[in-house]
Amino acid sequence: KVMKAIVIHALKLTSSDEGDLDLYEGGKAVKTYYFNVGAKPTPIVEEIDLTAEDAPSLPRGIIEYVAATRTSYWTKVDAQDDTLYAGNATTHSEIAVPLLDGDELIGVLNIDNLKRDAFAENDAEFLELFAAEAVIAIQNARSYARAERDLARFRALLETGHKLAEINESK
């Protein structure tokens, strides 16, 4: 839910229809959350595990550049003429910002737009501020998931302990 909210809000803030959030671990993309809210008849929402054997090969141009340099990038010409652009033919503007926790790359937020010159430096600055808040939300979601796993593990250990105690008492 957190990843979806991050991308949906970024799309609304930039008046765009398509975007994705790639999450990184150890410097490598492990998961992408893709949204196309303008797709007809229904929006497209995909969660793709990039570590799976059957993971699709996705165009990584600008996203890969942002991940490597840890700096924001937006197309300053038609995306189709940008040397880093590797997406579909209907996109004419793209912006991507890194999600950083200090020096650690947490992810890359990437937004596509069908219009030319849809993004400028102020959009990058604004999305960088948004990305800083998104990092906190992602860290909180990860901490919550870890706590849920730990709780399940401790409950299983407690249950096993109770069963062992019952066995010992019956002897």
In short:
This protein has 171 residues and is an alpha+beta fold.
Descriptors for this entry?
alpha+beta, 42% helix, 26% strand, 171 residues, 3 helices, 6-stranded antiparallel β-sheet
Shape descriptor reads: elongated
Counted beta strands: 6
Largest sheet: 6 strands, antiparallel
Terminal-residue CA separation: 50 Å
Mean pLDDT: 87
Secondary-structure element string: HEEEHEEEH
Strand content: 25-35%
By secondary-structure content and strand pairing, the structural class works out as alpha+beta
| Helical segment count | 3
- C-alpha-based Rg, rounded: 21 Å
Arrangement of strands in the largest sheet: 3-2-1-6-5-4
Low-pLDDT ranges: none
Portion in helices = 40-55%
Describe the structure.
Helices cover 42% and strands 26% of the residues. It is an alpha+beta fold. A 6-stranded antiparallel β-sheet has the order 3-2-1-6-5-4, sandwiched between helices. α1 (2-14) packs antiparallel against α3 (121-170). The termini are far apart.
Summarize the helices and strands and which ones pair or pack:
Layout: H1 2-14, E1 18-25, E2 28-36, E3 44-49, H2 61-69, E4 73-74, E5 93-101, E6 104-113, H3 121-170
Antiparallel strand pairs: 1-2, 1-6, 2-3, 4-5, 5-6
